Please model this.
Amino acid sequence: MRKAVKNPFPDTRVCAGQVMKPLVVFVLGMLLVGCSGRSMVVGLKTGTEESARAEQGSAVLPGGFSMSPGYQSQQLGELENRMITEASGLAASRRDDALLWVLNDGGNPPVLYAAGIDGSNKGQLKIDGVKNRDWEDMASFIWREKPYLLIADIGDNRGKRERYYLHFVHEPEMPGTVSTHVARTIEFNYEDGPRDAESLAVDVLGERILILSKRDHPPQLYELPLFPETGKIQTARRITSIVGLPQPSLADIFANPVLGKLGDAPTAMDISPDGTTAVVMTYRSILLFVRNPGMSWAQAFSRPPGRIATHSLLQGEALAFGACGERIYSTSEQLPAPLWVLTP
Model:
């Protein structure tokens, strides 16, 4: 049995009263799912897919958005730093709620890029001593009064890797051009063989790391301890299958033969700072999984998700809750990379 690690932060607020409370999240979940079982839909739309929006029963408003009463969508700008060529992971700063961190996909230098919530360039953080084999996602959290960034080297397009790596680094006090070494690394594999994954989230209160596979049908949810007892290679355990994800339409496949058929493939994930809600991005949708009091993540992810947005981002693979747990930021792996926000 894993030795319990006492959580020194019973209050996880980082934005003075702005974190979503469990009751608010529960009400939001009920609104999303509704008594009729239909989900709210918000259009996060950059193209001309009015016909695709029509099937959701939502009106297309001026500016190309298909809205619902639940959320508002807004493009804040574009990622200004042209070194961000393949934005594959996004995380909110735990030092500055107006700052985001972005990482590039595999094969690029081991660098994290700081961006303002308007997309402006705020500097970069070079990670010494590691290689960007296939960085696909990232997360941010606070532990023992120190803010951390977690880099997920978990991509595996061919499904042949023997090891995957999670690198923890201290978030620097001020963005700029700085460098750092990893604080620690978790090396792991999966209990049922290699998996390609692009979605990772940290549940600090539960001391868990969640990883969602990409190419399985249905996707599989795995977990690892946030604080392993030893430095040995860890094993990610499968805890549930994710069913009920919106499937790609024929229009999606015709519009993008390469990615259209992967419309239901998870590409990013995050957990709200209060640990009650998970958000998942696919190539077409942004989805919420609400965890009611006493519910495990396996139970929460076993229920049909609430869809809060459809989008036509070109290869959308980066998403994160804002530091206060209300806003949801997202961007695209393709250039130009627009920075969007969903706000309740």
